[in-house]
């Protein structure tokens, strides 16, 4: 082995990389960007969760301690919590407010809430959850339970004889509070995979098609055929559209495979219509194709294409409402969610798969995806024109 | 007279490099015009300017009576790049058909003829990535001809082509010219230059001399074009300093 030869190769490799300023910039800045984003998202104080309350609790009047309204006590504790924003609702409002998302859960205190607590020593909270995000449901349930516990703790001195320390018996915590949750969407038979599936599908179908388009278009330029194409009457727009349709067809096959696999092999639960799902994912895939074409204008080789993954794909994952709910993100990051195509696909897919919504409800999301596609086509064509310098 | 290709004071600067530096070109119908010059003299740049792949720094271009840039006129021009530019995953036939279709010429019998012209009928179903350099070059030429253009711009079409086929190419170029097709062919091979109707000697982006091979030789009183070219070059260098 000749060390000198090895070092010569080392020097050449280093020189090549250093000459590729984009790579150097990426090696330095991409991790910083991603760490910053992660820190902001993980550390951010989530916005208070809007919780609807419908309280018709009559309370109990005892000759010794006067009137006790347990429902009101719990509501006061809920209102005092920084994590919750309590909205008082009337019976008629509950469903609508849950559906339009202005409250994420509704807590109902019936007339005999206090009475039955006195009788059973157990407060059963009737919580109606929106339910399309299981993590969110867990968080809300926890907050509500805590507030209720605090409400009950306040009773300790009132002679109601509430067990102040919950007793643990046989591995089961005998809390004086239990939550009886019902779900507007989803429900018992839905597991976490069912809830994650929509965004998972969106992510997959976008990711592969993006890379495929980016590399295909890049190859056209590196093998010189782009120059040959430019010497034919074909316009830039025609070339972009031709690619979009060609790759889009493959994307469609992929989308169909992903969808059928998730539904029939992974057996996830879903509501809504299958053809609508196919439409949403296909639209997102088309967006992915066009993003790939646009991105290829900024890449000079396949290696640089890979570098687009942290720049283009990961922000979609972090900011597009895939894992973090957009309303929980810090205000200054929220506008970024609205420029992420995947955000609209996520919305539409969740609405269809978990809520069973139809075209009539989800069309605004689809319209935005179509709009984004249009903008991308125009931008890609413009980038190609710029190359004729 | 109507020229098929006409440029006026055409310039293309890449920063401080004057790749094309004030070229006035007039090429008539059915003419074979040879662009002769050493490496880096601006042959490729000039051809790319003509076909609209580059925007001139200044000057004007007319092709087939139309001011450039004009996408529609490109249906009537054929272009062969210096390095073969073909779809590696497609066959010879498919490449030829693709470029013909792009120019709106959908005639399958003509495609087969073109493939025969470049003597590729036996390999017409081979994938490009399985072909040798010379075979690719032939496919490139077939692609440039696939839509029956009226003007052909060929950038060093015979590089890597064996002598026998090179002769075939040139007799073929001649027969095209006889049917009224105009050809602009770049080369630095002098025996090819002899076969052109008219030559332009290009050096550092400037046309040093222009004329038929015989006239150029006579101007310098040399027996070969090569010597004539060297003399023009020496003259230009002295004149410039
Ligand atoms: N895109 C570009 N950017 C910068 N300089 C360029 C560019 N294209 C060409 N040049 C420069 O312009 C000059 C002319 O190049 P051109 O390719 O036209 O030469 P040529 O005559 O075709 O040479 P060859 O015989 O080697 O093919 C060269 O100095 C080249 O480096
Ligand atoms: Mg050249």
How does the SSE layout of this entry go?
The complex is a heterodimer of chains A (389) and B (241).
Chain A: H1 3-19, H2 21-43, E1 49-55, E2 60-62, E3 66-68, H3 70-80, E4 84-88, H4 93-99, E5 105-109, H5 113-120, E6 123-129, H6 134-153, E7 167-169, E8 172-174, E9 177-183, H7 192-222, H8 225-230, H9 236-265, H10 274-296, H11 302-319, H12 334-337, H13 341-355, H14 359-387
Helix pairs in contact in A: 2-11, 3-6, 7-9, 7-10, 7-11, 7-13, 9-10, 9-14, 10-13, 10-14, 13-14
Chain B: E1 3-14, E2 17-28, E3 32-36, H1 43-50, E4 58-63, E5 66-67, E6 77-80, H2 92-102, H3 108-117, H4 133-145, E7 151-155, H5 163-178, E8 182-187, H6 190-193, E9 198-203, E10 206-211, H7 213-220, H8 225-240
Parallel strand pairs in B: 3-8, 3-9, 6-7, 7-8
Antiparallel strand pairs in B: 1-2, 1-4, 4-5, 9-10
Helix pairs in contact in B: 2-3, 2-4, 3-4, 7-8
Bound molecules: adenosine-5'-triphosphate and magnesium ion (MG).
């Amino acid at each position: 082995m000749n060390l000198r030869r090895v070092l010569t190769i080392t020097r050449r490799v280093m020189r090549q990389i250093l000459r590729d300023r984009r790579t150097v910039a990426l090696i330095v800045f991409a991790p910083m960007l991603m760490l910053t984003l992660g820190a902001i998202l993980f550390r951010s104080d989530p916005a208070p969760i809007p919780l609807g309350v419908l309280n018709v609790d009559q309370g109990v009047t005892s000759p010794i301690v006067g009137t006790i309204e347990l429902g009101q006590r719990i509501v006061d504790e809920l209102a005092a919590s920084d994590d919750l924003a309590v909205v008082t609702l009337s019976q008629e409002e509950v469903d609508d407010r849950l559906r339009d998302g202005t409250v994420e859960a509704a807590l109902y205190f019936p007339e005999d809430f206090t009475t039955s607590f006195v009788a059973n020593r157990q407060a059963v909270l009737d919580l109606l959850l929106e339910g399309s995000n299981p993590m969110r449901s867990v968080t809300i349930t926890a907050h509500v339970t805590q507030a209720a516990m605090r409400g009950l703790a306040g009773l300790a001195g009132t002679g109601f004889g509430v067990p102040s320390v919950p007793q643990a018996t046989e591995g089961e915590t005998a809390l004086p509070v239990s939550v009886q949750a019902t779900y507007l969407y989803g429900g018992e038979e839905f597991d976490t995979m069912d809830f994650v599936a929509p965004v998972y599908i969106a992510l997959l179908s976008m990711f592969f098609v993006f890379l495929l388009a980016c590399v295909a278009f890049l190859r056209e330029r590196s093998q010189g055929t782009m120059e040959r194409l430019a010497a034919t009457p074909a316009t830039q727009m025609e070339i972009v559209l031709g690619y979009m349709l060609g790759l889009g067809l493959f994307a469609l096959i992929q989308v169909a495979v992903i969808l059928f696999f998730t539904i029939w092999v992974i057996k996830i639960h879903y509501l809504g219509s299958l053809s609508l799902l196919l439409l949403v994912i296909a639209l997102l895939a088309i967006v992915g194709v066009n993003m790939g074409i646009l991105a290829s204008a900024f890449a000079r080789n396949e290696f640089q294409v890979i570098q687009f993954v942290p720049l283009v794909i990961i922000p979609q994952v972090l900011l597009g409402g895939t894992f973090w709910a957009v309303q929980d993100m810090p205000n200054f990051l929220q506008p970024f969610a609205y420029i992420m195509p995947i955000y609209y696909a996520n919305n539409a897919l969740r609405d269809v798969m978990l809520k069973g919504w139809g075209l009539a409800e989800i069309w605004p999301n689809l319209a935005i995806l179509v709009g984004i596609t249009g903008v991308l086509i125009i931008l890609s064509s413009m980038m190609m024109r710029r190359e004729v310098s | 007279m109507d020229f098929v290709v006409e440029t006026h004071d055409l310039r293309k600067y890449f920063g401080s490099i004057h790749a094309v530096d004030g070229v006035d070109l007039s090429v008539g119908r059915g003419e074979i015009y040879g662009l002769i010059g050493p490496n880096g003299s601006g042959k490729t740049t000039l051809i790319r300017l003509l076909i609209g792949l580059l925007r001139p720094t200044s000057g004007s271009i007319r092709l087939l009576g139309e001011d450039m840039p004009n996408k529609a006129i490109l249906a009537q021009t054929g272009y062969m790049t210096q390095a073969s530019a073909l779809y590696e995953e497609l066959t010879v036939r498919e490449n030829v058909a693709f470029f013909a279709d792009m120019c709106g010429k959908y005639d399958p019998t003509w495609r087969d003829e073109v493939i025969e012209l470049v003597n590729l009928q036996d390999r017409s179903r081979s994938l490009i990535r399985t072909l040798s350099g010379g075979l690719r070059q032939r496919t490139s030429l077939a692609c440039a001809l696939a839509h029956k253009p009226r003007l052909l711009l060929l950038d060093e079409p015979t590089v890597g082509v064996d002598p026998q086929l090179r002769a075939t190419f040139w007799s073929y170029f001649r027969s095209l010219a006889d049917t009224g097709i105009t050809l602009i062919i770049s080369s630095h091979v002098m025996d090819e230059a002899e076969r052109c109707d008219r030559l332009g000697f290009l050096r550092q982006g400037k046309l040093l001399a222009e004329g038929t091979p015989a006239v150029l030789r006579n101007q310098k009183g040399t027996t070969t074009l090569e010597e004539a070219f060297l003399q023009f070059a020496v003259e230009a260098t002295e004149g410039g300093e």
